[in-house]
Specification:
- With 227 residues, the chain is mainly α.
- The protein has one domain: Penicillin binding protein transpeptidase fold.
- Helix content is 55%, strand content 0%.
- It contains 9 helices and no strands.
- Helix 1 crosses helix 4, helix 3 crosses helix 5 and helix 7 packs across helix 8.
- The chain is globular.
C-alpha cells in the first residue's frame, strides 16, 4: 500500500511539472518572444568588448554557450546559470527558494533554452540583471554607481558591477565598497588563471567573514572549500 501511495505521489509530481513546462513553453512562444522583439533594450551584445563578455561568463556561467540551460558540473558555476537567472526574472511573479528551484530548472532546460537563442539570452541578461538599489542592467548600473555611460567604464569599474551580481546587497558599491573591491581582486585572479574554483559552488574564490556570509543565497557558500 505504501509503495502504491509513493508511486501515485511521484506520478502526480511528474504530471504537475510536465504541465508547468508545457505552460512555460506556451508563454515563451506567445508572450515572451514577442515581448523581447518589441523591447528597446539599451545594450546590445556588441556593446560588450570580447574581454567584458569573457569576464562576465567566466564569473557567472563558464559553460553558458555549451550547456542546455542547466549546469551542475562546471567548477565555479554554482546552482544558477544565466538561463535559470532569466527564468527567475521572466517567469515568476514571486520566487520562493526551495520547491520553486525545481520549476525554475525545468523551465530553463525545456522552455527558455530551447526556444530563445544564447545570444538573445545574454542580451536579456546584461539589460535585466539586478545590481541592487532597484538598478537593472549594466547601462543603468554604470549611470547609477559611476555616473558614466557603460562605454566609459574602465575594467575595474566593469568588474565592480559584475562582482555585485551574485549578492548585490552583500557586495554593494555604496554600502560595502571594501567587500566589493576584495571580490574584484579575487575575480581578477580567476580571470588571469591564478585561481581555479575548487568545486561547483566555489563562487567567492576564497573565504568570507561571517558578516559577509549573512544574507547569501542558500547553498551558495561552503567554507569547507577554503580549509
Amino acid at each position: 500500500m505504501l509503495a502504491v501511495t509513493i508511486l501515485a505521489l511521484l506520478l502526480a509530481g511528474a504530471a504537475y511539472y510536465a504541465y508547468q513546462v508545457h505552460q512555460a513553453r506556451n508563454f515563451t512562444r506567445e508572450v515572451l518572444i514577442p515581448r523581447i522583439h518589441a523591447a528597446q533594450y539599451i545594450l546590445q551584445l556588441k556593446d560588450l568588448s570580447p574581454w567584458q563578455q569573457e569576464a562576465l561568463l567566466k564569473v557567472e556561467d563558464p559553460s553558458f554557450y555549451h550547456h542546455g540551460g542547466v549546469d551542475f558540473s562546471t567548477p565555479g558555476q554554482g546552482l544558477t546559470t544565466i538561463t535559470q537567472g532569466l527564468v527567475k526574472l521572466l517567469y515568476f511573479d514571486k520566487f520562493q527558494p526551495g520547491i520553486a528551484k525545481m520549476r525554475q530548472t525545468l523551465i530553463a532546460a525545456y522552455a527558455l533554452d530551447p526556444l530563445v537563442g544564447k545570444d538573445e539570452q545574454l542580451r536579456l541578461f546584461i539589460n535585466l540583471v539586478g545590481l541592487g538599489e532597484g538598478v537593472r542592467g549594466f547601462a543603468e548600473g554604470a549611470r547609477h554607481y559611476f555616473h558614466k555611460d557603460f562605454a566609459q567604464l574602465d575594467e575595474d569599474q566593469y568588474l565592480a558591477l559584475v562582482a555585485m551580481i551574485i549578492a548585490p546587497e552583500n557586495f554593494s558599491l555604496h554600502r560595502h565598497a571594501e567587500r566589493n573591491q576584495e571580490r574584484v581582486a579575487r575575480i581578477k585572479k580567476l580571470l588571469s588563471g591564478q585561481y581555479q574554483p575548487k568545486g561547483l559552488c566555489d563562487q567567492y574564490y576564497g573565504p568570507l567573514d561571517p558578516n559577509t556570509q549573512r544574507g547569501l543565497a542558500p547553498f551558495s557558500y561552503f567554507d569547507s572549500y577554503y580549509r
